[in-house]
Model the fold of this input.
Amino acid sequence: MNHNGERHYFDEFVSIMERLRGPGGCPWDRKQKLPDLRTYIVEEAYELTDAITAGDMGKVREEAGDLLLQIVFLSSIASEAAETDGAFDIEDVVEGIRGKLIRRHPHVFHVSEENSGVDSEQVLRSWERIKQEERKDKKEDLSVLAGIPKGLPPLLKAHRMQGKAAHVGFDWPKDDPKPLFDKLDEEAAELRQAVAVGDVKAIEDELGDLLFMAVNLARHLNVNPDAALFRACSKFEARFRRVEQNAADKGLNLNECSLEELDKLWNQAKKSVSM
Done:
């Protein structure tokens, strides 16, 4: 914001991108097409989530800017397309999300006796209902699960699918995790049975069911499964690196260690590395 209170920095940001894409601009930026940005968008999104997980606010700010750059870049490319090809610019993007936020929050922008005093669960149900109405008007896929990216990593995809189904009431009972633990035990038993039989396809199916149920349990325990697995991976990495260091300090080669020696090194690492 400048000294006169005018918010102009976003327009300046867009102008910079237009200059980079315009005549006399950057050869690399001018060369890019929409498909070229896919990798960068995914990469920047992951870098932002990593920064959030690390709790580094300075890095979160930086990575948020990098992700925003991709949206402005994408909009700049799209604005150069022919009108018949669905051309749009950043103003269209902003207007689209502005209208969507207002439509999907009637309890805030169009308060009535019917929608006043709603809780977060009712808000999510209303959000899904309004999305369904929007899709119906556009003659799009009306499934509650529509809109989940096909390329979303399976762990996140399971979490999103379960959450969306829960928004319309298709869910396990709340405030009682016992049925979920029982189901988890059931899936583990089915996996053990498949392993005992040696049925490779059944093993994959049952392992998938077990993982899917574990995500369901995480959701009901208000734990983000992706964050939980990320933490587990970080913990394993830190401890395994300590195993390597301890082995090196003792002149041991991990490839030549017995299971008993490896187990001892691991237990030492667990005691010295806590997360």
The CA atoms of residues 121 and 129 lie 13 Å apart. The two ends are 41 Å apart (CA to CA). The chain has a mean pLDDT of 90. Residues 172-223 form one domain.
